[in-house]
Design goal:
By secondary structure, the chain is α+β, with helices and mostly antiparallel strands. Helices cover 35% and strands 21% of the residues. It has 2 domains: 150 residues, DNA methylase specificity domains (Adenine-n6-DNA-methyltransferase TaqI, Chain A, domain 2, Alpha-Beta Complex), CATH 3.90.220; 151 residues, Adenine-n6-DNA-methyltransferase TaqI, Chain A, domain 2 (Alpha-Beta Complex). The radius of gyration is 26 Å and the shape is elongated. This is Type I restriction modification DNA specificity domain-containing protein.
């Protein structure tokens, strides 16, 4: 079978429908309708995420041109590089749903191309290579366009064979997807237990030692500098400015920075040093604001950006490591979320007054070191369990993609493959 299927330009096999461009100046005084509105984040590989779907009001003629139909294959224009062109079949999950201009709806010619087969092809290594190699890339985002999507060469077996492949892969991938859901549920449970453990310990320590506001152990809060930087990492000997997301995972990520242009003089007062306690000040996601991390010993010239606070601590009162742990408890996280400023849909900010009002267990200095050691030991065991689950998820994802790739490129005869 391999090598016997022709490669046919996708544009010859379907019609592409563009979506809505949101325009605040659109006329809403005439004949308008309010409909569900699908965005890039709602289109996942193999399914539609409907919980966060919003609604939009548009003139009826415009809605008619962007309404999804059962069997449309949805493909995304932009986002993470590995998500470009990912395809999912629309099955009328929401009646009368519209789609934004960054989501393309491909209406296949059913006598030549099966929608489910096309969606599976877009999830193969073959398709991923095409979209990742032809996409326009920046440091954080990537994009494709309608012409590149329509130019995608589709392996085209006879329609009956497409349907057999789709039926086989739906059965095989559903088993893999069940395992993935189970592993994700386990990972969520581990995270919840870790949060519960820290929160319980914090409450117990406050009950024993009382509490203190962060302001009483702070010397100062410093906000950094964000000049115009180059969209690349700094080379050895160059200066870099960290991104806002350098501590989003709870630990410092040195690769989250941009190179300072050669002609710009670095403000060395903002240089990061090992042991610095950092806190995220601003983000589009409230869940990431207030994330904390400690800078390890580094041998690179990195500067603090203005979206991250550096907390200078009175080390005669409290250890940075102890504070970093206690700032991750549910009690503190709720306090920070309630104190975030910023309108819905806009960048959120964390005022310094909210940071200073965070409540911590007032534990004696000598006991803090013992507690930090115990917390780190517990965290290491949790990290080991999470790492094992992550490895299993990666293997399942690779297995799923390899299976799809073999089937849609003719390397696997689905009529003889059973329970692979």
């Amino acid at each position: 079978m391999s090598g016997t299927w022709p490669l046919v330009r996708l544009g010859y096999l379907c019609r592409l429908q563009s979506g809505l461009t949101v325009d605040s100046s659109r006329d809403l005084t005439g004949d308008v309708v309010t409909r569900p509105y699908l965005r890039v984040a709602n289109v996942q590989a193999g399914y539609i995420e409907t919980e966060s779907v919003t609604e939009i009001t548009v003139p009826r003629p415009i809605a008619a041109r962007s309404t999804l139909r059962y069997g449309d294959v949805l493909m995304t224009e932009g986002g993470d590089l590995d998500k470009l062109g990912r395809g999912t079949v629309w099955r009328n999950e929401l009646e009368g749903c519209l789609h934004q201009n960054h989501v393309f709806a491909l209406r296949t010619f059913r006598d030549r191309l099966d929608p489910q087969y096309l969606a599976l092809v877009t999830q193969s290594l073959y398709a991923r290579h095409y979209f990742e190699s032809t996409g326009t890339k920046t440091t954080n985002l990537a994009s494709t366009n309608r012409s590149k999507i329509l130019d995608f060469p589709v392996p085209l077996p006879p329609l009956e064979e497409q349907q057999r492949i789709a039926g086989f892969l739906n059965g095989e991938t559903s088993r893999i997807d069940r395992l993935v859901r189970m592993r994700n549920a386990q990972a969520s449970l581990i995270k919840e237990r870790q949060e519960a453990y820290l929160s319980s310990k914090s409450s117990s320590l406050i009950s024993t030692h009382g509490e203190v506001r962060l302001r009483h152990v702070l010397l100062s809060i410093e906000q950094g500098w964000s000049p115009q930087c180059e969209d690349r990492l700094a080379e050895p000997g160059e200066w870099g400015v960290v991104r806002a997301g350098c501590i989003n995972g709870g630990s410092f990520r040195m690769d989250q920075h941009k190179a300072l242009p050669a002609g710009v003089t670095p403000r060395k007062a903002y240089q990061l040093k090992g042991g610095d306690l950092l806190m995220s000040r601003a983000s589009g996601s409230p869940d990431l604001i207030g994330s904390v991390g400690i800078v390890p010993e580094i041998n690179q010239n990195l500067l603090l950006c203005d979206k991250v606070y550096r907390l200078h601590i009175n080390r005669l009162r409290m250890r940075e490591q102890f504070i970093a742990i206690m700032l991750r408890t549910r009690q503190v996280r709720e306090h920070i979320k309630l104190g975030i400023s910023g309108a819905e849909g806009m960048a959120n900010n964390l005022p310094t007054a909210v940071v200073r009002d965070c409540r911590l267990p007032n534990v004696p200095l000598a006991e803090q070191d013992i507690l930090v050691s115990a917390f780190n030991e517990h965290a290491a065991s949790v990290a080991a369990a999470q790492s094992a689950l992550t490895q299993q998820l990666e293997l399942l994802t690779e297995r799923r993609q390899a299976l799809i790739t073999a089937a849609v490129t003719g390397q696997l005869d689905v009529t003889t493959a059973h329970g692979i």
